């Protein structure tokens, strides 16, 4: 296709290019190796999403982000606001994993695990079961409104809305105990925020997967715009082999390719018909391509019918096409410095995070000194009062004891042993005393040590200030 300089386009052509209404895409259903993997990922992600919310652990929901109580429960672990660092680490791991997968094989996440891809696949499956295959859907949309068309469209949208609302309900069920939420829905006793988020998330699912579909990937998703910064000439991408395929042209199945002045591409356009974003992969790599590999599956089937070798469209690299690399040569370049560095950093962060979680103490302590002035008793001793915020992050109750050191003769004169219920915080008042002759006036550092009475390895030390009047 000839590309004219911008100044050679007429105003009408420019307006048509900029403001043309997008045409609806009718992807053709297909089977194949990559299509099977897409459905495996659909089942895996949705069983994980819909099922995990109903799992129980220690008498509570296994995964619950209780924002009201400021506690995140993930199976046997309880995370508090003080554990925000783990969320930061999780985001870093996710970003590095995305960089690594993209550098190795392009938009794998987009093609197989992105929620937009997964729910679009589900909604298109519902659509095909109600309205029929691609040709029937196109004829139905082109036909005038009739009782049959109205019934089919209504049935489709009702099922879409049910799936979307169930998705919104499950999403909210990770922030409000889902069994309580279910009983509130059944009794029409939902709170305003639960109702808002169920409807909002359901509306987003219905709109994105049912109506917008490829528009989200092409215009709304930022990943499509900056993915090229993570690609290089050794990145595996869905690629059309132009040298082998061109020139295109139809021919008889029995025709001898060696006697024709044609390439392997028979110009059937099936690769375009199965593409969920409606692009022609034969025009080269485009930012709209989500890497779903549907065009690979259908092209391989066409090659089989024509008795041609598979792989006219395949996962390959730019270097492999220009340098005729073998599969071994391609995979050898996959392990290049860029991917090795990503892998090393990612592995190190995951290892450090895992060790940190394994060694995380179920005890956190904050020491707050009372704002009042120190007390001077009749015997000349000086008293300071503190409040210890003791947090038990485990789901079993613990008994702790506290000791103080740092100044000769310093001691605790209040109750120094106490119990903290499971997964809760207790404020413990502590009175500390020193004799009149044990220390110079001013500010002195002391150390509080809190340890578990049943497990001496669980111990935390915190510094504080002891004030001695002048």
Explain briefly what this protein structure is.
The chain is an alpha+beta fold. Helix content is 44%, strand content 19%. It has 17 helices and 16 strands.
Give the helix tally. Answer: 17
Mean pLDDT: 89
Number of beta strands: 16
Rg for CA atoms:
32 Å
Q: Would you identify the regions where 5 or more consecutive residues have pLDDT less than 50?
A: none
From the 3D structure, determine the CATH topology of the domain at 363-468.
Answer: Immunoglobulin-like
CATH superfamily of the domain at 363-468: Immunoglobulins
Provide the structure class. Answer: alpha+beta
Shape: elongated
Helix content: 40-55%
What about the largest sheet?
5 strands, antiparallel
Separation of the first and last Cα atoms: 90 Å
Q: From the coordinates shown, what is the CATH architecture of the domain at 363-468?
A: Sandwich
- What fraction of residues sit in β-strands? 15-25%
Q: What is the name of the CATH class of the domain at 363-468?
A: Mainly Beta
Explain what this protein looks like in three dimensions:
The strands form five sheets. Strands 8, 9, 10, 12 and 14 form a five-stranded antiparallel beta sheet that branches. A four-stranded antiparallel beta sheet has the order 13-11-15-16, with no helix packed on it. The model has no long low-confidence stretch (mean pLDDT 89). By secondary structure, it is of the alpha+beta class. Helix 3 packs antiparallel against helix 17. Helices cover 44% and strands 19% of the residues. The protein contains 17 helices and 16 strands. It is elongated and about 115 Å long. Among the domains are: 94 residues, no CATH class; 106 residues, Immunoglobulin-like, CATH 2.60.40.10.
């Amino acid at each position: 296709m000839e590309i004219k300089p911008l100044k050679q386009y007429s105003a009408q052509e420019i307006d048509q290019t900029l403001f043309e209404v997008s045409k609806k895409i009718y992807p053709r259903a297909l089977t194949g190796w990559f299509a099977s993997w897409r459905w495996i990922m659909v089942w895996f992600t949705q069983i994980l999403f819909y099922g995990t919310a109903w799992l129980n652990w220690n008498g509570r929901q296994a995964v619950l982000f209780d924002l009201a109580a400021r506690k995140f429960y993930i199976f046997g672990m309880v995370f508090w606001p003080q554990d925000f660092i783990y969320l930061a680490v999780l985001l870093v791991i996710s970003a590095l994993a995305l960089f690594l997968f993209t550098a190795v094989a392009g938009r794998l996440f987009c093609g197989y695990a992105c929620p937009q891809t997964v729910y679009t696949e589900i909604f298109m499956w519902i659509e095909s079961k109600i309205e029929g295959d691609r040709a029937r859907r196109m004829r139905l949309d082109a036909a005038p409104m009739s009782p049959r068309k109205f019934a089919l469209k209504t049935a489709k949208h009702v099922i879409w809305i049910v799936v979307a609302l169930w998705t919104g309900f499950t999403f909210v069920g990770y922030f409000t105990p889902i069994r309580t939420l279910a009983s509130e829905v059944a009794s029409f006793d939902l709170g305003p925020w639960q109702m808002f988020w169920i409807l909002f998330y359901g509306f987003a699912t219905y709109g994105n997967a049912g109506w917008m579909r490829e528009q989200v990937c092409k215009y709304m998703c930022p990943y499509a715009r900056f993915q090229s910064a993570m690609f290089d000439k050794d990145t595996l991408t869905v690629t059309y082999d132009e040298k082998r395929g061109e020139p295109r042209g139809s021919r008889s199945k029995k025709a001898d390719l060696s006697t024709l002045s044609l390439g392997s591409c028979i110009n059937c356009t099936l690769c375009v018909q199965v593409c969920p974003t409606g692009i022609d992969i034969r025009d080269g790599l485009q930012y709209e391509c989500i890497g779903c590999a549907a065009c690979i599956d259908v092209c391989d089937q066409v090659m089989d019918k024509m008795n041609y070798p598979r792989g006219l469209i395949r996962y390959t690299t730019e270097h492999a096409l220009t340098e005729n690399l073998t599969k071994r040569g391609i995979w050898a370049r996959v392990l290049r410095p860029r991917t090795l560095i990503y892998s090393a950093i990612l592995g190190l962060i995951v290892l450090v995070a895992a060790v940190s979680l394994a060694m995380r103490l179920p005890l956190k302590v904050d020491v707050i000194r009372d704002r009042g002035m120190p007390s001077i008793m009749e015997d000349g001793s000086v008293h300071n009062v503190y409040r210890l915020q003791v947090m038990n992050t485990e789901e079993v109750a613990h008994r702790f004891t506290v000791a103080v050191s740092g100044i000769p003769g310093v001691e605790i004169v209040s109750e120094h042993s106490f119990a903290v219920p499971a997964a809760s915080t207790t404020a413990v008042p502590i009175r500390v005393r020193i004799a009149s002759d044990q220390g110079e006036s001013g500010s002195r550092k002391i150390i509080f040590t809190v340890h578990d009475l049943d497990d001496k390895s669980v111990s935390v030390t915190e510094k504080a200030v002891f004030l001695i009047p002048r």
